[in-house]
Amino acid sequence: MAAEPSDRFRVDFARLVRRLLEESSDQEAPVSGPIREHLGGGVEALPVHGEELPDYELANLQLGLDAAFARPGFSARILGVSGQGRMFSHTTLSDLLMGSHFGIGPPEYVHAPVGPGRTLACLAWGLLLVDTPDGPLVVFVRRGEEHGPMPGLMVQAVGRDPEAAPRFISDLRALMEEHDVFRGQVIAIEADRRGGRRVVFLERPSISADELVLPEGLLDRVERHVVVPTQHRSQLVARGRHLSRGVLLWGPPGTGKTLTVRYLTGRLTEATVIVLSGPSLGMVGAFGNLARRLEPAVVVLEDVDLVAQERTFGPFGSNPVLFELMDEMSGHAEDADVAFVLTTNRPDALEPALAARPGRVDLAVEIPLPDAPARRKLIDLYARGLELQDVDLDSIADRTEGMTASFFKELLRKGTLVSVAAGRDRVTAADLETALEELLSNTSALTRVLLGSGEPNAAQQLSPHEWMHAQPGQATARITTRRLH
Questions:
Q1: For residue 131, what are the β-bridge partners?
Q2: What gap in Å lies between CA 274 and CA 339, rounded to an integer?
């Protein structure tokens, strides 16, 4: 006898309920179970301690945790969190301790940069059940979404001993600073329009002094202001002299400001160098603190004129970035070995802020367009490795007033291309004349601007990659210095 439709419905419905119950019973137990088992009973009254960190500290947090658990008497077991817990970036250790809807899942890791071309697998969302000499401890690591409502990084701890958790957090901070991945590195800070930030590790530049086209004594003067204080730090401090200092490199685009900074970076082999440019200039406060932590350090602020008069630059319409920079420079202790190096194409945009806060920048250096002798040196520099035939280099230097290093680099490249295309081994005067006429023609005006040889006030913004690969010979022949009081 066939079953009635209502009977079939009841059978199917009962089968569905049994399946759901079976699946529910197969799910992992709430993560609160292992936490309570590890800590013991009566966890409701245990205080949770924690610290919020910038998201760029993820690798340092991992190294700090590794160092903490490598100590005698310490060990840790890692658990992940699944279910609704992963959906909410504001989840706390208290939620995991008391809730029943957070399941056990796989821990989540993020590969964070720790050097040029190197990364480290870092715990970004997970629990650590820790055994310590002071008793059991539970540590929770949570990395928020970069553009979510709760960005950044948080670490929390709870222990049976009420003093164990705050002591662990304090020790962890000390271990993070001891193993800091930024110390002695060259890093650039990238920012996007949504407020996200990313730390990029760069190779330290290696530029010899003969690659800089500078007048006699200029390099010594700049090095004496930026490099020498670090080399003689202990003697200066012993004599009551301050170490914090600032230098402003100013002049038209393409005249060598960036190359000069890169040379200084290569000289300070033990210093941490932090490069801020464009939108990342709004983060000068946070990374100024990082510089103090990692001294000796150099903070490079590229093209600060771009934000000198922007009163809404930075989060939530904050104060002008340039004034924040001035305050940051004055906030360092006198024995803080931190140098600020500013570059600008328009010193007039900076003068009001510098005058309103005297002493922050104590040396200003003008790097103008190259004069004829400097242009001749730049041609020689970029002609290295070429065999020239009947070329009057002095004439070329005389005809290229206002041109920058990038122009001469392109001139020699184009001349070589003409020679190669014609099947010649040598670069002749005719080859360079063809290249020169093309670059100096009216139709190449935009090309000259793109080579840094056009409008003097044109903005020059370098990406971290371009900063790292800026070419030798971009500094020029004349310098004027003045002290700002």
A1: 75, 136
A2: 10
Average pLDDT, the chain: 81
Q: Residue 142 pairs with which residues in a beta bridge? A: 125, 154
What is the rounded CA–CA span in Å between residue 474 and residue 485? 29
CA-closest candidate to residue 465, choices 275, 192, 301:
275
Residue with tokens 């200029």: 218
The tally of domains found in the chain comes to 3
Residue 357: is its pLDDT beyond 80?
no
Domain boundary among 128, 160, 178: 178
Amino acid identity, position 10: R
Assess whether 238 and 354 both reside in one domain: yes
How far is it, in rounded angstroms, from Cα 409 to Cα 211? 13
Are 110 and 143 in contact, with CB atoms under 8 Å apart?
A: yes
Measured on CA atoms in the order 329, 332, 333, 334, is the torsion positive or negative?
negative
Same domain, 247 and 207: yes
Cα dihedral 324→327→328→332 (10° resolution) = 180
Query: Has this prediction a pTM greater than 0.85?
Result: no
Q: Per residue in 285-315, pLDDT tens?
A: 677 788 888 999 999 988 887 766 554 444 4
d(CA 202, CA 465): 8
Which residues, in sequence order, are CB contacts of 436 under 8 Å at separation 6+?
396, 399, 400, 411, 415
Q: Which of 125, 145, 178 is at the close of a domain?
A: 178
pLDDT tens digit sequence for 22-58: 454 445 578 888 999 999 877 788 899 999 998 899 9
Same domain, residue pair 171 and 194: no
Element (H, E) at 158: strand 153-159
Measured CA to CA, the distance from residue 119 to residue 127 in angstroms comes to 22
On whether residue 388 sits in a domain, the answer given is yes
Which pLDDT score, from 0 to 100, does residue 319 have? 46
